[in-house]
Predict the structure.
Amino acid sequence: MKRYDLIVIGGGPAGLSAATEAAKHGLHPVVFDENARPGGQLFKQIHKFFGSKEHKAKIRGFQIGEELLEEAEKYGVEVCLNAAVIGLYPEKEVTVRIGEEVKHVKGDAVLVATGASENMVTFPGWTLPGVIGAGAAQTMMNLHHVKAGEKILMLGSGNVGLVVSFQLMQAGCEVVALVDAAKRVGGYGVHAAKVARLGVPFYLSHTIVEAEGSDCVTGVTIAQVDEKFQFIEGTKKHFDVDTICMAVGLSPMSQLLMQAGCKMEDTPGGCVPVCDASGATSVPGIYAAGDVSGIEEASSAMIEGRISGAVIAEYLGYITEEGKKARERELEEALEALRKGMFAPENRGKLLEKTEEGIDISMNLLEKGYVAEDEIERYPGVTHMAGVHPVMECTQNIPCNPCQDACAKGCISIGKNITSLPVVVPGAECIGCGMCVASCSGQAIFLVDEESEPGYGTVTLPYEFLPLPEAGEKGIALGRDGTKVCDCEVVSCKSAKAFDHTNLLTIKVPADMTMKARFYKKGAKFCQA
């Protein structure tokens, strides 16, 4: 029986990070992953991450995955793919199926980082071909380059539902509606806003009545629900679709930890192991990190993995307790920053009425997916001045600050608190470089010149669709709600390596439309840039 210092089960962001951290301290870890390629969810994530430099902010998920793999290889981590772990025992013995062979290996320590699986909801027709999880749709699009469908209804308004809806439209699909039984949008407002300005309607307090079709999905009916989630008579709405995507949450894949005899607890987020802050379970030498111990973002999973890697190194005698504590403090500070703001764990399920700055929250954003015209001016990033200047429609306290770092002229400030709303620094001169627009993970920054010539102004907006518009092209400008606000003309569409595929599209609009025009449409279907 082969023995390892550390066996890591799961080659996603938490598992790879833990293995690499342990290897840095001299351990010989092995990572078992049942998939054909490592990286977990990262290689499906083509959007830019939130956070700060330390959290790999403004870097796309698949690029972070590539960086993790390079780092793991550099430190000699052994990664075994197409290897499904089928047994974990208290003595830290692992059985793994590789091909047709079942092998037994043993570790001095074991880290379980198996992630989570998609939840489903049932309704008449839910087993029809064409009803899929949002994660499955993301896998089809971003890994296998296959469209999930032509006309799609998305169920779920959390970050997964919002992000995948946007990516479906980038792939050329039509998202006919975004539906959620909850009263309010569950994900980041900036994610909702970029979907809304593409014209996707939000139906909150609605859910699916039935999927229609005999051999596959041909349509779907939704209806409004009351306080007890019962259908309200006379509120049915029908959509012709060929695909229903479900983004209704995740459940930790904690079965191996149960098998190993770890103490478990049922939580609103699923059955999870009882762990301390370092991921240590009730069974000595067995640890958990990432979504298997509680659903969070991939950024958090990577930090949790590194904490566990350092703790395991100390547990096995590779570093001193002082060295472990120093590394823990460093990592916990970064993790704590991600757990602040409106979406902090302690705020889940709560309706916050004010931002940290005391500004009224946009109820329209929470109920319809976009900030209303009579609400947008209240936020500090939305300013008026002569010449080109940034307009930052960031309206929620989320941990993110790439815009501050991106501006070489110091026009934008968030300050020391990473969750503060961005502001335009008085007296700073914007040179119109567009780096803030390209770096914004939520695509919530625009460059506005309120009067570039008599009667007209320009708006520079983030654009990630193909084909790219050309200078002189005529089209229509869409408002925050995705409806036409005016005709417009393309001034330029700039691409640069530094923009990382977020093209800067500048359109010319009537001067009184510069604070309303937020997207460009030329009539063709959208396709990912």
About this structure: The chain is about 20% helix and 30% strand. The longest helix spans residues 298-315.
